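@channel sequence for tomorrow's demo:
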Amino acid sequence: MNRLTNKNGQQDFLSIRNIVPGQYIWLLSPVTPVLIQLPAALKMMFHLLLILFLNYVPGHPAGGWGVEEAFPKLTFSYPVDLTYVPDGSRQLMILEQPGVVRIFSNRYDTDTARTVLDIRSRVSYGGEAGLLGLALHPEFRENGFIFLNYTRKDDVDSLETVVVRYQVDLADYTADPDSETLLLRFYQPYDNHNGGSLQFGKDGFLYIGVGDGGAWGDPFDNGQNKKSLLGKILRIDVDATSKGNYGIPADNPFAGDPAGAAEEIFAYGLRNPWRMSVDIETGALWVGDVGQNKREEIDVVVKGGNYGWRLKESIDCYKPNKNCEVPDLIDPILDLPQDKGEHSVTGGFVYRGKKWPELYGKYIFGDYVSRRIFALTFKNGKAVKNEILTENAGNISSFGVDENQEILICDYASGKILMLKKK
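structure tokens (generated this afternoon):
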């Protein structure tokens, strides 16, 4: 989120991410926002009060689950992404939003997280901007390639998103900051709704989640504009060079489009895709898309799909506010009304681990604001049941999995990595 809005672009409550020393906040009312600047001490007091406020969500008793620290001796600085290292070393890589990649052993008693890469001097960090996405090449064991998505200021001090590649030295798991190779860059009109998720599909291509460019209500209608990369899921071939340091998969829906649609687009009509994952069993691409002011949504994204924004916010018309249907819009697999407490969905993973057989095949996801973790049962592309596993699971900025496909949870506020437990 940015200095003026929360993570989902709303101006109806304060996000604890905004209350940091030296930054602006909104004092919000139903009528008008008043921009002020508070001393750091007052902001920290607001921070604590807001944590207490946001931790309380009435009703909705949870199931017999809870969370606990997965690595009690480790604390990170605003963790936003986590993945395992696919080389048999039993290590995990984590992103800190200010601009650091760290690596640590996947052991409960591990007490050290080493720096792989520090690019804080390059990253434009604050609110929703920063170092936002990490993916390791499917052949990382051989080439050491990692891919990052971050925001930075360009030559004229405008904000842009870049997708870049670094090569990690597999002898010591460090990367030279000067080894950066640029794949994609595109302008961000505002500093919220950056998306940022990176995932390699079972097809070997890199999928990139991109928000609509921010502000309120997608003012430039980027979500439906197929000539813009904003408000999309992109798919590129990082092993090809037809577009410089990447290529366009031949079956991308707009490859060679005579009308000039961006060839990188895989799907469109997204508002702010915040965390996505690939089901390792089926290859399905799951996305949590943060809503405007009424609804959150979970999407299963298919090639060429139009997920509706800004024509629709989940299942409701948005702009226009009625008669918004056009051919081939795809509704979410799960709609989450915000009046139930969810205000900022965080996409998760279809569980394929062995520790919790009762969760196998369910989609595990959460919400940053309500602090709930859910398990969605689905069949034949339809939601069957969505159950609350636990409440008060932290400010969930991301989910990850380890080499055994066990779920891990990033708690943004505390800097801790959590895991599920039975009560």
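heads up for whoever presents: Helices lie at 40-55, 140-143.
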